[in-house]
Amino acid sequence: MITLAPIAAAAPAAIEQLLDAAFGTDRHGRTAYRLRSGTEQIPALSLAAFESGELVGTIQCWPVELAAEDGRVAPMVLVGPVAVRPDRQKDGIGRMLMEAMLAAADAGHADALVLIGDPEYYERFFGFSADRTGGWDVPGPVERHRLLARLRGPAPLPERGTLRPRQEAAAALR
């Protein structure tokens, strides 16, 4: 049976091993890592999945912001990585983690979510799309159709801008 817990319940070394197994040891140079540089994951939205006490999956969320060309700054949450142990992929663990995170986000923890991922999967099951992200720049390479957002709430996001680590979150860690 899979149980979910706050990510703090998982040992950092076990999380790193899981991420290496799921994404490779060269993952640190990816654009998503640049987006979360200097910030810490958001505890209310970051979870670990355990089976019989063993870590089998994680989801991590990070504070980012969209800096518009007109000077406005919109806070957002970067979703990912969503990692599942390779031998347990396709067992619904990633979907379980996403659903739990989205429930927490919808309960008031975040209205604007962004991720880099498979558009067919994340749009079909979770409502993410690339419809609004075409004018957003990121600090590194990205396949445009894979930059996805899920937006809720009354405030529209700028059509053009740059995604970056959330400045106040990064400053608080210094």
From TrEMBL:
The keyword rRNA processing does not apply. Gene3D superfamilies: 3.40.630.30. Keywords: Transferase. The keyword Transferase applies. Pfam families: Acetyltransf_9. PROSITE patterns: GNAT (PS51186). Residues 2-153 form the N-acetyltransferase domain. InterPro entries: Acyl_CoA_acyltransferase, GNAT_dom. One of its GO terms (molecular function) is acyltransferase activity, transferring groups other than amino-acyl groups. This is GNAT family N-acetyltransferase. It comes from Edaphosphingomonas fennica.
